[in-house]
Amino acid sequence: MYRFGIAGIPLGSKGRTVKDAVENTFQLGLNYLEIQLFRISTQEREMRDFVGMKPKELDEMLLVDLLRSDEDGKYKSVGLNTKIEEDDIGTELFWSMARDYKELNLAREVARELDVKISLHTPYYVDFAIEERMVVDSIQHTIWGGVIADAIDSEFLITHLGLGSVDRKKSLKNTASSLKQISEKLTSLKIKPKLCIENSGKGEVIGSDEEIDSLLGSVKNITTVTNVSHIYSSKKNSPTEQEEFADIIEATKKKKRPLYFEFSGVEFLDQNEYRITPIKKGNLKFEPFADALADFDDEITLISFSPLLEHDALYMKVIFERSILKKIGKTVKPLAQ
Fold this sequence. Notes:
Elements: E1 2-7, H1 18-27, E2 32-36, E3 41-46, E4 63-69, E5 75-77, E6 89-94, H2 101-114, E7 117-121, H3 132-151, E8 156-159, H4 168-188, E9 194-198, H5 209-218, E10 222-227, H6 228-234, H7 242-254, E11 260-263, E12 265-269, E13 272-277, H8 287-293, E14 300-304, H9 309-331
Parallel strand pairs: 1-2, 1-14, 2-7, 7-8, 8-9, 9-10, 10-11, 11-14
Antiparallel strand pairs: 3-6, 4-5, 4-6, 12-13
Helix pairs in contact: 1-2, 3-4, 7-8, 8-9
């Protein structure tokens, strides 16, 4: 089973909700949607008007946490599966793609009916290692992303890792500590989507092959998704050949990681990644990757995050289907004359 999808709302989508995005993705002939938790804000509010209700029952309000005072007067999270008490404080999240859990539940049911799988990507700018205030915010935003991802039955909760300092070992240690906090909190909340870290394409951003291996070896209950374009950038114009792409897929399988690949064009300036481009305009070509994918009989997901989201997702699908037909043509023996 091969799934093709996009990272974001389809460019041609008139509606801007999660449900709209799911429906438009299906109408395009695609079956995967990586929703992005961007342009969000939060506020804390008193909950005394909602005593006796559960946070997920509230209309036009998207609570991502409920805080309750303990014996020492300190407010601590009690999760969203408990009834609201008079002195509780709710953390309300404002997001253009959903106003409340009713909208998220509807989007989940529509996705199931249309067989469109979903993942959720947390805000792109995070800091898990350096600036203390930003680290706290990044951890919290990722946990909130997990709450939303769980509500829409996401397969994965995806995050970048942020910049590293000059002391790379210390940055990696701090990042591991942050991810451990997130993983433990998601486990305690019984969040089902798997926390996935994404590899980086720039040296200053944490997420090299070695760093990914280190983090997955030291933090429980996390895995990784593979951004092929970032591999190409980090290795300075490689891979380019079918065999090199096949090695990437095989290594991902061997390490028992999700066969979830993000792809776009890449443009270089002075041997460094300059910008993400449409596939046809970038240095990285999809055809040899498609030929490599055609040799695998696994469930694989391919996500377009190029500026031409759905256009390039459909382009990848067409190229891949050609690769499959080419493979079939090689295996079919001609009829004897």
